[in-house]
Amino acid sequence: MPVDFTAIDFETANSHPSSACAVGLVRIRDGVAVERAEWLIRPPASHAEFLRFNIKIHGITPEMVEGARDWAGQLGELRDFIGEDVAVAHNASFDMGVIRAACAETITPTPRLKYLCSVQVSRKTYEIPSHRLPLAAAAAGYGEFAHHDALADSEACAAIIVDAARRHEVASVPDLVKKTGLRLQQLKAIPLKL
Fold first, then answer.
1. Sheet containing strand 114-117, strands side by side
2. Nearest-CA neighbor of 113 among 150, 75, 151?
């Protein structure tokens, strides 16, 4: 199906959402991946600790991000890659929470993205025991991939949305949202506490 969107995935250094240490992005045009990008991110000093648990999941170490750009240094490229697209993520509340928290932590403007969660789309599309990314991607016909690699996870997420659009016989993300009874979310900054 000819859907257009950008899939996104973050990995974090620890349990704080502002500790983004990697991002993967896949631009989809007419249901096909036309551009991919990934890079490491140096977490903010206040949340720079890499927990052993997180390293075990994604394999990214503090040494690997030493020369990487910080959140503010890479935010423009992130925004430019997504452009006017709907951003799609698997468990989007996590990934959008990373953007919100990292922007708040670094006092940078929060992009006003429209976004959709592929977990919710999966629930409306597949009858599977769990909607975790590997199982939902498999239901979409997407083979094995390096789970917790930001780019690989973005590609798997994209496959779910493309397959769901085909199954629901729609040609756009807004049509998919309407057909599944979901709604597009709007990313907003974390409200300031006075």
1. 32-40, 20-29, 5-12, 87-89, 114-117, 185-186
2. 75
The alpha carbon of 182 is separated from its chain's Cα centroid by a whole number of angstroms, namely: 18
Task: Give the CATH architecture of domain 5-186.
Answer: 2-Layer Sandwich (3.30)
**Cβ atoms within 10 Å of 131's Cβ, excluding its own:** 20
DSSP letter at 129?
A: S
Nearby residues of 99 by Cβ (< 8 Å), 6 or more positions away? 10, 110, 111, 113, 187
Q: What is the pTM of this model?
A: 0.95
pLDDT at 180: 97
Asked if residues 152 and 146 have their Cβ atoms less than 8 Å apart, the reply is: yes
Q: What is the pLDDT of residue 1?
A: 58
* Distance (Å) of CA 78 to CA 23, 30, 187, 191: 9, 21, 14, 22
The domain limits of the chain are 5-186
